[in-house]
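Bug report

Summary: structure tokens for Transposase IS4 N-terminal domain-containing protein differ between web form and batch submission.
Environment: batch mode, default settings.
Steps: 1) Submit the sequence below via batch. 2) Compare with the web form result.

Sequence submitted:
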Amino acid sequence: MAGEKRYGRAARDSRAARGTVPDRVAIGVLVTRFPPALVDRVIDAAGARERRRRALPARLTVYLTMAMWLWRDHGYEDVLLRLTDGLHWSGTGPDTADTAWSGSIAKARARLGSEPLRLLFAAAADPATGPRTPGARWHGLRLTAVDGAMVEVPGSPANRAGFGAPPAGAGPAANPRVRLLAHADCGTGALLNAGFDGDRTGPAELADRLLGSFGPGMLVLAGPDVLSWRLWRAAVATGAELAWHAGDAIVLPVGERLPDGSYLSVLRPPRPGDGEPVTVRVIEREPVRLVTTLLDARARPAAEFAAVRHGRWRAERVLDAVRPGPRGTTVPARSQSPDGVRQEIWALLCLYQALAPLTTQP
């Protein structure tokens, strides 16, 4: 047809044998959330633009890394077929896309690197929430949550060196794991920030990297793994209000008892010379202890925190978007190199960001 773009044999084959409506809609969602102009900007910002014509140009490779999570049980070549068909259907495909084989796709991913996907995620983070967004606000505060999940990665020598050995007791056949921590809006489920590293990096250290997305007018919820005197002080300095679960190891002496049954306490530094204790309010509802900066029990009674706690966003939702089975099923990455793994995880976060609005529609 006159004026039709040429997509090469891969695209023609995909239109003939691969294209389905759900596949095409999925790619359409990606393209809508991450239009080609935005993808091109992050490629240029990362210095990842190809210097000569390639069978897989950088823009197509960016979309491919996200599509790999949509069809995670399929090989590279089949994912590319489905992707090029979806791009053709959405009218945003490349001018050319020659037939590629799995080896050339792996090389294209290596040329691209992880930085364009990191920048793409950063460009899509912190979408606006309106005052009518369900669950987005509580007592005038924007509800957000920090939570973590694990991604298993192939046990190549490079990945073991980059991310550390599997946990003790996991067995000789166990693979390394990457700890993912994300900060999300509880109303929309959209991600505001995220970070990840090898399992040897603790949740509190990762949470410290997310403080840039904390701010005034926000109530940040978190589980017990991140609570410490040092991180609490740093988070309070952002202007955000906090409500974090306290683990059994955290000592919270009972101070003043408040009318709603909660009490004032202090978080103490690990060493006396580190700084001053911090006053907090503790709300105990077995088996949970909630520590908060909101000290006024009359303005925000303890009973009202229950709805906040149960509505907390969970990072497992990121993995649920691509999980083949029930929650608890392993969601592994494919890459044999640490930068390839980083590229995949940023791509996963981008994919979730594109799909999140679909899961929060009334």
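Above is the batch result. After comparison, the two runs are identical; trailing whitespace caused the diff. The chain has two domains: 8-123, 127-335. The first helix runs from residue 8 to 17.
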